[in-house]
C-alpha cells in the first residue's frame, strides 16, 4: 500500500497536476497575521549486454504482491511494527510518522490498492539485481496520468526484498483533446496546480530489462545539488540555478518557500541527501533517471523573545493542540525524481514531495 500523502497528495488527470500542500501553518505573536497558506541515486552500475536475468518479472510480481498484501493487513490493523516485515529505510520512517499523525488527529489511514504494475528490473552482469522498481496506478484512479514509483532493495542475492522508497512521477502526456480548464486542474484550498514534465522513456535491452546508467555515480551528485539548492533562510532562496531547469519543483518551489516570510519569525530550510541503494536508470535518449532521498530540517522561531508561534494543522496536532512556542523544528522526508541529461547541463526535477513532505518528527520550545 502507499501512504495518505503518496496516494492522495497528488493527481494528474488533466494538463496540470494538483498537489496537496504542506504549509508553514502558524500564527505568531506581536500582532502578526497568519502564515501564508497555499492555493494549491543511485547505486552504480553499467548497461551490460547480459543474458535474460535470473531474477524474473514473475519473481518481482511475487515480491510486489506480498508487499501489497502485508501492507494492507498492517494498515487495516494500524500495526506499524508489522510494516517492518516488508518495508525499510525512509518509506518505513514515513509510514510510522503518518501513523503517529493519524493517532494525533484521531483519524485512520485507509488502505489504497495499487493496480496495473509495470516492473523495472535492471539488467546486471550477474543477472541478480539488488534493487528493482515498480510503476503502478491506484485502484479507482487508473486514468490519472501520474504513477506511484516504488523501489525494492535487498542486501544480497537471495536476500529478503523490502520496499524502501515510494514516490510519484507523471508517466503519460495529457490528452490533446482534454479541455485546459478541466476540473482536475482547478486547485481547491490547500492545493497547488503544477505542470510536471512527463518521465522520459527508459532504455531497455533485448531481454526487456531496464538498463542502468553507466555514469550512475556521477549522476547521483544531482541529489546533493538539489539539497543545497533548497537550503536557505526565507526569503533569501534563489530561484535561478545553473544546475536545474526552471519549473514547479525548482524555481516555483523556491518562490513558494520564500512566500513563508513573516516580519516577526525567522524561517529556514536545510536539506541533505541521504545515501541510498536505488538504481539509476538509463533513459532512451542517453540521459539518466535519478531518484533522490532528501531529509530536510525546517526551523521556525521568533526573531525576539517576545515573538511566539501558534501552529495549526498537522504541526499543532503533533505538538499538542492550543499551545504557543518560541521555536519549532520539523524533520521532513522528501523523495524526488530527477532527469539528468547526457553529457551535463541543467537537470529537470520531474517530481518532488517538498510541497507536502512527510513530517518525520516535530519538536518545539514552549513560549513562556
UniProtKB/TrEMBL annotation:
Pfam families for this protein: DUF8094
Keyword Protein transport part of the UniProt annotation: no
Protein known as: DUF8094 domain-containing protein
DUF8094 domain ranges (all copies): 51-173, 194-353
Stretch forming the signal peptide: 1-26
Alphabetical UniProt keywords: Signal
The keyword Lipid metabolism appears for this protein: no
Region (Disordered): 25-55, 174-194
Compositionally skewed regions (Low complexity) per UniProt: 33-54, 174-189
Amino acid at each position: 500500500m502507499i501512504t495518505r500523502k503518496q496516494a492522495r497528495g497528488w493527481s494528474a488527470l488533466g494538463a496540470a497536476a494538483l498537489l496537496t500542500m504542506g504549509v508553514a501553518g502558524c500564527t505568531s505573536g506581536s500582532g502578526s497575521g497568519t502564515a501564508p497558506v497555499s492555493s494549491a541515486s543511485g547505486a552504480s552500475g553499467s548497461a551490460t549486454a547480459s543474458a535474460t536475468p535470473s531474477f524474473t518479472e514473475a519473481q518481482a510480481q511475487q515480491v510486489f504482491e506480498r508487499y501489497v498484501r502485508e501492507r494492507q493487513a498492517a494498515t487495516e490493523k494500524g500495526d506499524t511494527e508489522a510494516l517492518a516485515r516488508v518495508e525499510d529505510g525512509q518509506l518505513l520512517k514515513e509510514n510510522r510518522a503518518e501513523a503517529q499523525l493519524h493517532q494525533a488527529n484521531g483519524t485512520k489511514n485507509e488502505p489504497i490498492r495499487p493496480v496495473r504494475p509495470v516492473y523495472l528490473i535492471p539488467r546486471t552482469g550477474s543477472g541478480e539485481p539488488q534493487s528493482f522498481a515498480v510503476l503502478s496506478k491506484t485502484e479507482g484512479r487508473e486514468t490519472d496520468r501520474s504513477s506511484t514509483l516504488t523501489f525494492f532493495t535487498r542486501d544480497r542475492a537471495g536476500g529478503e526484498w523490502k520496499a524502501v522508497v515510494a514516490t510519484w512521477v507523471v508517466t503519460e502526456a495529457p490528452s490533446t483533446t482534454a479541455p485546459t480548464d478541466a476540473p482536475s486542474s482547478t486547485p481547491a484550498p490547500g492545493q497547488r496546480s503544477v505542470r510536471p514534465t512527463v518521465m522520459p522513456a527508459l532504455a531497455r535491452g533485448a531481454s526487456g530489462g531496464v538498463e542502468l546508467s553507466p555514469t550512475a555515480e556521477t549522476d547521483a551528485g544531482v541529489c546533493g545539488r538539489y539539497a543545497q539548492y533548497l537550503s536557505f533562510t526565507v526569503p533569501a532562496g534563489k530561484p535561478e540555478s545553473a544546475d536545474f531547469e526552471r519549473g514547479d519543483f525548482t524555481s516555483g518551489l523556491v518562490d513558494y518557500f520564500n512566500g513563508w516570510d513573516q516580519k516577526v519569525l525567522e524561517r529556514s530550510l536545510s536539506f541533505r541527501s541521504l545515501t541510498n541503494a536505488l538504481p539509476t536508470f538509463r533513459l532512451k535518449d542517453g540521459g539518466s533517471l535519478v531518484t533522490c532521498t532528501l531529509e530536510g530540517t525546517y526551523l521556525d522561531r521568533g526573531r525576539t523573545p517576545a515573538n511566539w508561534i501558534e501552529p495549526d494543522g498537522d504541526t499543532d496536532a503533533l505538538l499538542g493542540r492550543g499551545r504557543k512556542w518560541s521555536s519549532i523544528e520539523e524533520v521532513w522526508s522528501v523523495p524526488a525524481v530527477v532527469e539528468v541529461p547526457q553529457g551535463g547541463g541543467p537537470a529537470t526535477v520531474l517530481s518532488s514531495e517538498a510541497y507536502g513532505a512527510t513530517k518525520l518528527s516535530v519538536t518545539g520550545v514552549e513560549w513562556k
